[in-house]
Structure formats: C-alpha cells, structure tokens
Write a structure and sequence with these properties.
This protein is of the alpha+beta class. The protein contains four helices and 19 strands. The longest helix has 62 residues.
Length: 429
C-alpha cells in the first residue's frame, strides 16, 4: 500500500508541474508548420483546378477578323499635321515702324482690308525725289534726240553741198577736155580741173563716211540713254510697288492668324508682320524617315486617318532633301473642307506604293507593328480560343499579309490580348 500511495503522489506532482517556454514554442512551431503545409496543398489544388478549367475571356471584349484571300495595296505609314491649304506671310517691304494696327488675330478679312499702318514718310519722300529725277531724265533724253537730229541734219546738208560742188567740178573738167580737143584749151587747165574733181570726190566720200558714222554713234548714244531711262523707270516702279506693299492690306479673303500688334515697334525689311490663312480648306504636311523616301513620290495615293475617319488624298509634293533624317511631303485632300479638319491637328498618313495580288490577308489593327512573328488567338470552336504563332508580312492601312500560320476562314482575335499571352487555350464566356 505504501508503494501505491507513493506512485499516486508522484503522478500528481508531475501533472501539477508547469510546462516550460521551450515546450510551448515547439508546440506552436508544429501547429504553424501543419497550417503552412495545408495552405500550400490548397493553393496547389486550386492552381491545378484553374489550369484544368483554363482562363476565360468575355466574348463582348473580343474583336474578330476572318482570314481571306485578295489584294493588298502596300503602304508606308507616316505622321502628319493638318495645315491650311493656303497661307500667306506678309513681310515688311522696308525698314520702318508700326504706327497703327487695324485688325486682331482671328479676324476674318476681305481682299484689300487694311491690316496695319507703317511709317512711310521717308519712303514717300524718296519716291517723290525719284519722280522729279524721272522728269529730268525725260528732258535729257528729248534734248539728246534734238541734238542728234541737228548734228545729222548739218552733216546731211554738207554732203549735199559737197555733191553739188563735185558735179560742178566734173562739168568744168568735161569743158576743159572739150576745149583742149578743139585746140582752144591747154593741158594744164585740164590737169587742174582733174585735180579739183578728184579732190571734190575725196571730200564727198569723207563727208558721207562722217554722216554714216555719225548716224551710228548718235543712234548708239540714244540707245544707251534710253536703256538707262528704262532701268531708272524699273527702279521707280519697284519703289512704287514697295510703297504700295507698305500699305499693309490683305491680299485675299481669309482669316488673320497672326499680326504684329505692338504699336511703335521697329520692323526690319523682310520681317514678318502678319499671316493670313484660308481656314475653310486644308492639306496635310507629312513626315517620314528618309529610309522610306524611295517609297513616296508625287502622285501616290494616300489615306489620312483622323480617329475613325479616313480621308483620301494624293501626294503632290516631296522635298528632295532629308532634314534630320526626315523627308517631308504634302498630301492634297479630296475633301479638303471636312468638318473634322482643324489646323494643327495630328494625323496618321498611309501612302500607297505597290500592290500584292492573291495573298492571304487579315484586317489590320493595333496588334500589328511590322513584319515578323506574332502570337495570335484563333477560334477553334464557339467557346474556345487557341494561341498560334503566325508570321505576318507587308501591310496596307486596311489589311496585313499572312505569310504562314493561318488559313482561309480562320477567325482571329485582333483586339488587345496582352494579358493572355502566356495562355495556350482560353475559354470564351
């Protein structure tokens, strides 16, 4: 009995003893480990189930296009800016200052509408001085004509007198020869008459040559003076045009898009003082990398995209030189007054340059960024999509060439699918 009592007492003392901290920590760790294992198992099971079930996508978020066969009008893409079809810069024709401004930017103006007033006093004084000089040159030219006419008239009279004198001397020579033949004259008288006659011929020839030379010289002098007068008249006309241009007026009906409105400001000759634009008609100024310069030429058909709007046009000008690696060109729009057109609006421009016939093609979209391999989702049945590697080639603004990976009739998702690129198969909800 004593042994039983002792054993019972020992048991009770052992149960009453406090559990140590180390033992408590061991028990907690064991619980944590068991919990983590169960969580990992649960995640794995969920992952397997998700993988087995597959990802899904809402049908309403998808845009499909079918592969068909046809022609692709190849194009190159460029950036463009809408600008007014007509724009004229008005520059100051002289060095002057602004006295008054009549219009403001944004005003509609008609042809001949005054825009601003420049200080023209100095120019007007110079022009009046040139008018006086013109009169003086006209008087000088008329005086030269009179002097030339008088000089030539005097020479002509001298020629006539000399010819008459020669005729008289020839008559005297004939008389002396006749008398000498009758024996009434002498040989000396005949010789004297012959000498006088020869002298008269030389004098007449000299006067006639002087008259001809005088005509040529006076005619040349007159032409020089007339040419100087014509040059002066052109300078005067240029001064008149400059003075007229200094009356700053609108050359046509348009919108005033810029004007120097600082009264009293000094402006130099050739400095811009106003800009007028036709804001009812527009064109597109395009830019493209010079590596594609050989694909753009005047006459090429172009399509300008503004949002979902597509405007047809024609390339009418291509700059021959590259600037900073870019070639500029101009597109004339068929509908240049479309309501979506605004000056300064940025656009996409597609320029057509070749045609490919009888090729597999797919509608162009945001998924396409140039020739190469793509991961596209193809509908295998009404409820599933399958990812395929597809090689795409050249493109137009409307279609993309399918090199391989797709067949006629395949329905392909052309909307954004970046979040599903690591999925091989997707269920359609």
């Amino acid at each position: 009995m004593s042994h039983a009592v002792k054993a019972s007492e020992f048991k009770y003392r052992t149960m009453d003893r406090e559990i140590s901290k180390e033992e408590k920590l061991k028990k907690k760790r064991k619980v944590w480990i068991q919990t983590a294992v169960w969580i990992a198992i649960s995640v794995a099971v969920v992952s397997v189930l998700v993988s087995l079930l597959g990802a899904s996508v809402d049908r309403r978020q998808l845009i499909f296009a079918s592969v068909d066969r046809g022609e692709i009008e190849l194009s190159v893409s460029a950036s463009g800016t809408v600008v007014p079809a007509f724009e004229e810069i008005i520059n100051s024709p002289i060095n002057t200052r602004i006295l008054q401004v009549y219009r403001r930017s944004g005003d509609s103006v008609d042809a001949g509408t005054p825009l601003l007033q420049l200080d023209l006093q100095t120019t007007e004084t110079a022009y009046r001085k040139l008018l006086d000089e013109k009169k003086m040159k006209e008087y000088q030219l008329e005086q030269l004509r009179v002097n030339n006419s008088t000089y030539l008239s005097d020479l002509e009279i001298k020629v006539k007198i000399s010819r008459m004198a020669l005729n008289r001397m020839e008559a005297e020579l004939r008389n002396e020869r006749y008398l000498d033949s009758l024996g009434s004259g002498t040989t000396d008288l005949v010789r004297q008459a012959e000498l006088a006659c020869n002298t008269g011929k030389l004098e007449l020839e000299q006067l006639e040559q002087m008259y001809r030379n005088g005509q040529q010289v006076k005619e040349a002098d007159l032409k020089v003076k007339e040419l100087e007068y014509e040059i002066f008249k052109k300078e005067l006309d240029e001064m008149k045009r400059t003075l007229d241009d200094a009356q700053i007026r609108s050359p046509r009906k348009a919108t005033l898009t810029f004007i120097n409105s600082q009264i009293g400001a000094q402006v130099s000759q050739g400095e811009q003082v106003a800009v007028i634009s036709d804001l009812s008609h527009f064109k597109v100024e395009g830019e493209i990398a010079d590596v594609y310069g050989d694909r753009i030429a005047a006459g090429n058909r172009a399509v300008v995209k503004i949002g979902r709007e597509e405007l047809a046009g024609t390339v009418v000008r291509v700059t021959p030189l590259s600037k900073n690696g870019v070639i500029a060109f101009t597109v004339q729009l068929e509908e240049d007054s479309h309501p979506r057109l605004r000056s300064g609006l940025k656009t996409d421009v597609h320029v057509m340059n070749a045609v490919k016939d009888d090729v597999l093609r797919l509608k162009n979209g945001s998924y396409y960024s140039g020739p190469g391999d793509y991961h596209l989702f193809v509908m295998t049945d009404e409820d599933h999509l399958e990812r395929r590697t597809v090689r795409l080639g050249d493109s137009s603004f409307e279609y993309v060439e399918v090199v391989n990976g797709l067949e006629i009739g395949d329905r392909v998702v052309i909307s954004g699918m970046k979040e599903y690129q690591n999925k091989k198969r997707i269920r359609i909800k």
